[in-house]
Amino acid sequence: MRRLGERLRPACALLLALALPWAGAFCQGRFEAAAVPADGPVPAEETPKWIALTFDDGPRRSTTTALLDGLARRGVKATFFLIGEQVPGNEDILLRMDQEGHQIGIHTYDHVMLTDLNEADFSAQVDRTRTILENALGHDDLLLRPPYGKVDDGVRKRAGCPIILWSVDPTDWDDKNVERIVKHVVNCAQDGDIILLHDIYPTSVEAALRIVDALHEKGFLFVTIDELAAQKGEKLEAGTVYNCFRP
Ligand code: NI
């Protein structure tokens, strides 16, 4: 897996390595209900688990707005990694995200791989987008998610903010099968995970809201990346790559 070469937190690297060979089977049996005696330990379902929903490649007015409506109805906060060139004309959506407590990050100006770029080209993708977002929001405390999760030393050095990847990826862009996407995420989700979805597909919006409902029932609470890190006692640092905050 490409992300293993990067500076993963050891727990994440181990989990990814363990999960690889067993894929589905490893995930499938995880949430089988265990009988808990009335006076025994608190059932897992009642212990709060923290998780972050993240959405890439937006904003796209029709789908992003529907998603924000659904998240608002559920009182759920998420993190959005935005494409700079899609912001003009959608500034009201960014302001809404901000006002409703969602977190915002950079996903480059027009969705290019950031590795092997020279300084000027990197700046044209990341700094330019940072300025666009700052002008729309009035603040520049942004995260960075490099497209395709590709990170090298240049990206780390120039990011100027924490680099956020993910630990649960249902490849929602692939077959756009809501049922499969929901099942994948609900079966794999663990305390401290970062889920990757894309708010530019109606199927992903539907899947995201069903994932929220299913994981709420399992005792998960949805928070932004900053809140998830804080909850796990991690201080996010510029230029550092984070895949998840599993205990
Ligand atoms: Ni992307």
Chain-averaged pLDDT: 87
How far do the termini sit from each other?
A: 21 Å
Name the structural class. Answer: alpha/beta
Q: How many β-strand runs?
A: 8
Bound molecules: nickel (II) ion
Broad shape: globular
Strand proportion, as a percent range, falls in 5-15%
Q: How would a crystallographer describe the biggest sheet?
A: 6 strands, parallel
What portion of residues is helical? 40-55%
Run of helices and strands = HEHEHEHEHEHEHEHE
Radius of gyration: 18 Å
Helical region count? 8
Low-confidence stretches: 1-38
Detailed description of the structure:
- It is a single chain.
- With 247 residues, the protein is α/β, with parallel strands linked by helices.
- It has 8 helices and 8 strands.
- The strands form 2 sheets. Strands 1, 2, 3, 4, 6 and 7 form a 6-stranded parallel β-sheet that branches. A two-stranded parallel ribbon has the order 5-8.
- Helix 2 links the parallel strand 1 and strand 2.
- The longest helix has 19 residues.
- The radius of gyration is 18 Å and the shape is globular.
- The two termini are 21 Å apart.
- Nickel (II) ion binds next to strand 1.
